[in-house]
Amino acid sequence: MALLRGNRDFRRLLLASLVSQTGDWVVSTGLAFHVYQLTGSTLSSAIMLLVTRLPDVLFGSLAGVLADRWDRRRLLVATDLLLAAGLLPLLVVRGPDQVWIVYAVALWSGVLGTLLAPAQKALLPGLVAGSRLVPANALHAQSGQVARLLGAALGGVAVTAGGLPAIVLLDVTSFLISAALQATLRAPARSAAVTSVGGQWVSGLRLAGTDPGVRSLVVYMVITGLGEGIFATLAAPFVADVLGGGADAYGVFVSAQAVGGLVGGLVVAVALGRAGPRALLGWGTVVFGVLDLALFAYPLVAPALWPALVLIALAGVPAAAATAGFATLAQTVTADDRRGGVIGLLGSAQAATSLGGMALAGVLGGPVGIVAMLCLHGGGLVVAGLLVLALGRSRSRTFPTVSGEADVG
Known about the structure:
Number of strands: 0
Helix content: over 70%
Largest sheet: none
Keywords: Cell membrane, Membrane, Transmembrane, Transmembrane helix, Transport
Oligomer: single chain
CATH architecture of the largest domain: Up-down Bundle
Transmembrane segments: 42-63, 75-93, 99-117, 217-240, 252-272, 279-298, 304-330, 342-364, 370-391
Organism: Nonomuraea jiangxiensis
Main location: membrane
Structural class: mainly alpha
Order of helices and strands: HHHHHHHHHHHHHHH
Number of helices: 15
Number of domains: 2
Domain Major facilitator superfamily (MFS) profile: 213-409
CATH class of the largest domain: Mainly Alpha
Shape: globular
């Protein structure tokens, strides 16, 4: 609460993130339903998912470089305004022959959306003192969880009550509010980049192979991204085929996951804010993996639903600790002029391996089994956490200038 009360810039960044992400969930939930309603085709729904995910893989690292070269506050404001304008073509969609407009808008939003995460995360250490970076990251991550709960519900209501125009209106409004909030941020001045965009991008890629701190985070993202793709693909079949639940049970399962993440974020912000980020990431991921292994394996003995709800909610605490630790390490593992590039590179690594995990789960989920594949995901989390701890003991490097930055406001 002291962090929120005493730092107006962090407050506004947090609120802007909450508002814009809520709009994102409104449009993604509403569009997914509307596209299927419009076309009656699961292929159309799959294409919709692909065009929204692919930009993260292709442009994530480049977007991070742009966040290092340009004024981050202005970049965030301009991106929000362009995202709002890009939604307007959806208002002319009337029939299945115009579904290509939906795909074009989704692609536009996906490409521009790659700029937001690295710019916001790279900006955060300039607004918050280093000693408060872990709780700030925990709270920033929880804005996404709140947005997920609010936006998914609003998206379903909006498409039912007002169709596509209602979705567009809500999302455009969210981007305009976010742009207005971020336009008032008092971001610290930064020196201009001396290398070209291409040179800076190549330099950032080299860090993944030469810098031990960056390399450990890339390895972490590759392992956990693969597991996240497996979980995203097999979570619904796990509830339906292994636990014997229906659509309502799956809805409760997803809600329990989100609520657990919210509670976990508050626990980290309140009780673990001064813990070391590498310890939070490593041990948080290990405990998260152990709880996931218990979640996926217990139905082999007693396939009841309620233990799954308890376990996935409990897993929210270590998951939130790992998220806050990872964000803080990504912000402090390199200097400010390369921070956005590193964050973008890590996002691309996760997005690419997540798609690979989805493909792997789709191919092997049947012959190998749903539980076995999900246990692979849980085991991967344990391995990734232990690797982070081991690499941190052997070699680690952070920049002390980060912890000394002033708390603006």
